[in-house]
Amino acid sequence: MSELESIEASLRKAGFKLTPQRRATVELLLKYQTQHLTAEEIYALLKQNHPNVGLATVYRTLDMLTDVQVVNKIIFEDGMVRFDLKTQDHGHFHHHLICNICGRVQEIHEDLLVDIEKEIKQKYRFEVADHRLTFLGICDRCRQKRIDKN
Amino acid sequence: MSELESIEASLRKAGFKLTPQRRATVELLLKYQTQHLTAEEIYALLKQNHPNVGLATVYRTLDMLTDVQVVNKIIFEDGMVRFDLKTQDHGHFHHHLICNICGRVQEIHEDLLVDIEKEIKQKYRFEVADHRLTFLGICDRCRQKRIDKN
DNA sequence: ATTGTTGCAAAGATTTTGCAATCTA
DNA sequence: TAGATTGCAAAATCTTTGCAACAAT
């Protein structure tokens, strides 16, 4: 079963109808998997092939996909709301490196926090269900450019 | 020099005038240091003693305080923009535990990421300038309540 | 006195909602 | 066919801005 089919099955299972708009949105999210798109960006890309899709539908579809756990709704430090397909292999171990210079958002897929979560549980008696970890700084590309300039 | 005086000195140094509205805002942030207030919350609290302060002024004051590094503008997973006084002792080692049940935001003041930042730098050649770490889960209080119920 | 600052109201930006028309199952 | 879904426009939120009056240095 392809990833698309598996997502479509999740929707049906949750009792949602599979409309062309929803299918197109899921396909688009699959295509741009590595990126973190905003609702407006998704809307603009969708318009290219589906000129009369409405922005409200995009918002509603993204909400629904968030509900059924197909996408992650991520709010970064800049306050931008971005949507991101949840994929099996990435699971919940998914952190971000945000470059202060070029603004690029890089994902890293490894769990860095296993030991720290244990520590949190012991010290604060806090049951960790999920976490968000973001590093802000200067990415490799921008660092290289800086060196080149001098 | 009190914390208030030191903040007022920062403002003057940056060329800003010290108006009653600004002083009141800083005093309020000092008073509610442990909390993360939204602009609206700050506005409402301010109104109690300064009934004719404007919301726009609150936003402008908070922007200015962010510029001069007196407050942190933090955007959590819920998308709410919150403001938080930067204090010497807390520095940049300041993480959050957010309870999924009661919504309480708890700060923890220790640097958990020293080793991880080194790893990030080596693996991704990313120069870390700052970080944001948030744990989502169930706080001690809510966990206790759950146990009591059974 | 000069320049920054304020409050207000209007404008922006983003997201949500009401509703009649339309589609999916 | 029945109920969910859509597009549109209007509304709701949150934040910013223009401007004349005002206040801090």
From TrEMBL, chains A, B:
Belongs to the Fur family. SUPFAM superfamilies: Winged helix' DNA-binding domain. This is Fur family transcriptional regulator, ferric uptake regulator. PANTHER family: FERRIC UPTAKE REGULATION PROTEIN, ZINC UPTAKE REGULATION PROTEIN. It comes from the Bacteria. It comes from Ligilactobacillus ruminis. Keywords: DNA-binding, Repressor, Transcription, Transcription regulation, Zinc.
